[in-house]
User: Fold these one by one.
Assistant:
Number 1:
Amino acid sequence: MASFDIPLNLPHAATIAGRIGYHVARSAEPPAEACRVLFELVGSLSELLNPYGLSGENPPEPEASRVRDEAARLGRAIVDEIETLSLGGDRLGQSIRNLFECLELGEEGVWISLRAGENPDSLQRPV
C-alpha cells in the first residue's frame, strides 16, 4: 500500500497530537472512567512533543530518534485503546496516520490508521 514518505517533523507531530486529543475528546464524551488510560496516553504524547511544537525545530540526534521512538510507542498504545473502546473514526484515523508520517513511519501509519477508524477509501489516503 502506498504511503507518504516525509522527513522527521516533530513540531508538526506536536500539532497533530493536539488534533488526536481533540478527536478523542469528541469521541469519548462524556469522559468515562473507561477512557482514563486513553486520555493519559494522549496527554503523555502531547507532553512529549509540545517542546518541539513551541520551538519549531527538531532536536539534534540522538534526542530526535529517542523522541520519535517514544512518540511512536505512545501512538501505538493510543490506537490499542481506541480499538478496545471502539472510539475510532475517519478524522481520528487520519490524524493517527499523519502522526506516523511525521515520525518517518508513513508505511506503518497507513495500516495503523485503519485500526483507528480511517476510511480505507478516504481521498486523504496516499495512492
Number 2:
Amino acid sequence: MKRNHEHAEVCEFIHVHEEVVERVTAQMPEEDDLDDLAEFFKIFGDTTRIKMLYVLLCSEMCVCDLARILNMTQSAISHQLRMLKKMDLVKSRRDGKSVVYSLADGHIKTILSQGMDHIQEDED
C-alpha cells in the first residue's frame, strides 16, 4: 500500500467556523457508540482474523477446514472465532457433528470488499 508521507497542512491563522462546528457537533454519535465502533474496527486490525473472514467470504466452513487452509491449530482458530462471534462478525450453525461458520451478514462482505478495493486502488 502506498502511503503519502507529506505533512498535513495547517491554517495560516486561527478562525473557527462556528456554524460548521455546531452542525457537525449535532451530528456526532454518542461517545459510547464511537467506542463500540472503534472496538469493531480493532477486530479488523489482525491479519489472522482478516484471513479468516476472507476464507468465510468464499465459503462457510468448519474449524477443521479453517485450520487446514490457514495452517493453524484448531485451538487457535477457535480462539479467533470466539472473538469474531462476540463482535457479531461471524455466525455458526450445527451440521450433524460439525459446527459450520459463516459471515454474520452482508455488511461484513461489504466492509471487506470495500477495504480491498481501497487497498488495490492505491496500488494502481
